Amino acid sequence: MDVRLFDFDLPEELIAQQPLPERTASRLLVLRKDTGELAHRRFRDLISYLDPGDVLVLNDSRVLPARLIGIKPDTGAKVEVLLLKALGDDRWEVLVKPGRRIKPGTLVEFGGGMLRCECEAVTEAGGRIVRFHYEGIFYEVLDRLGSMPLPPYIHAQLEDKERYQTVYARERGSAAAPTAGLHFTEAYLKEIEAKGVHLAYVTLHVGLGTFRPVNADTVEEHQMHAEYYELPAVTADLVNRAKEEGRRVIAVGTTSCRTLETVGRQHAGRLAASSGWTDMFIYPGYSFQVIDGLLTNFHLPKSTLVMLVSALAGRENVLAAYREAVRQRYRFFSFGDAMLII
Fold first, then answer.
1. Is the entire prediction scored with pTM above 0.85?
2. Contact at 8 Å (CB) between 338 and 40?
């Protein structure tokens, strides 16, 4: 399948650079996956599309302020370090810029020495393994010194770090936000629960690979990056009961979707408490095991995320919806508007 089948024209000015002042103020494009029918709504209208007994599954991963700006104490040269993966014992896999300056043994200081790291090794992918030195609690130091690693297509500065976190973010570990959930407030989630909709949570730590373009010519050649997930027993039980009773399971975001489908594929559509790494790549031809619907944002042309939503709703339906979203000047990507596929 040619990757170009998932391309579309997107004016750059439709890429949202800042979140709206109110989380629930976004627009909502509703796509009926069986017919391709579209409806233009506001995000506050989502509740009218949810039925009592539906299970809404959200990713509670919390974004790390993983971008650190430091200096080499011997030369004063500026260095940017981006945390990718915790390896234990204060060791991390990171990206560094400029990479040529950071060889094994190199020291970097942040915050006037409040945090220091030493490069231990160079990875095959060109990253670094570093060990951090600090006093106190690492994540508290990181909260003071780090900034949010915003996607490369966002050029504006984010004044409030919490606007790049969902209101239910709990488990630290993501390099990017599960952005479909950014539209919810705590009050709106309570309204949804009061209607009889069940809220369930999974954790998938989003890696920077989510922004990696598909460079292969065909879809099947692309290799997904692996991301760590956890699916608790309470969520497995809620979803299994809903499936048994014919109630809908709606994933909030492609990360929640991939977590549910990763586990469901292992157990013939049933879920069990589990954790591990997933590099699951969902594209047209995939038969969904768990989810019935998806709440998501608008994604990059030719991206794995456009391929995932195309697997659920059909490529032609999705591309027609995206063309309509462009015509109607919807806001795209992380801080943009939402789409509900049911």
1. yes
2. no
